[in-house]
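Many introductory courses stop at the sequence. We go one step further.
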Amino acid sequence: MGVIKTKRGLSSTDMKGIMLLVIMAVFAAAANVINPKFLTAANIINILYQYSVVGVMAVGMMMIIITGGIDLSMGYSVAFGAVVCGTIFTNTGYVWAAIAAAILSCTLIGFINGMIITRMRIAPFIATLATMSLTQGALNMVGSGLRLMLNHEVFNIIGKSDVLGISTETIIMAVVMIIGSVVLNKTRFGAYIYAIGSDEKNARLAGINVDRYKVATYTAGGLCVGLASILLGSKLTLVMQSSAGSAQLMDCIAAVVIGGTSMSGGSGKISGTFLGVILLGMIGNMLTLLKIPTVAQDFFKGLVIILALALSLLSTLIQKRNIKKAEK
């Protein structure tokens, strides 16, 4: 499915994962020398907690990118879901209705994205850029000036409790990733979206209903965003229109790509995306420990991301060279 394999059967995706592990090990060792607090259990647990929202979003984004698509609306959709949750809870007091409404609203945005892309034949980048603008506008109109408190036992359990020292949000992220891995590797749905991303034309010739599966994939991405919006609201407690945006979107895409998922579609693993999330968390956490100003953190984070992508590209080139040698 669009994955290069070596003579011994090791795929390019596996090689990218190995390269990513090496990068993480080197970075962690260097960071721990600079600040001995970095590799403490408490700090690692904190990194996972802080990036749980990005991790859940990344599962949905990864599925979409595997099909050869992209969803630029996720950053504002996650904030929109949190505002919907806060608004309904504040006005009704019904916590489960608020949670359901948030998840459904984000899932609907994903469904709309899929329908626009498949029915109107608009490129995913343009289609989701439009829905991003619409979502941002709706968020500004509905959430302008609102300061919504999610003060309830359910939100406290999700956002502030832990099990054996591991936060509930981290556990939820892990569960979502496990489910995502099963869906991608053990179901017909997963096999079909890999096939669509590898070669859409051949997938159609093979009898796969490409449009239906694309819509389903964007809808699943929206579902992941809806779950992430609950984690975001529970973590912050105070929900505002500025709760999320471009930062979460870029971290989400970066985690998926750094994790080895091809932007052209057809390949990628949840395990790689998980490592990508951790690496981004490590970078952000280390910059914070070093007291690097927030305005400068994106610059340093970008440098590390470029390095990771360059090494990922290098591993792919090495794979291709080995394939050519084996064929001679």
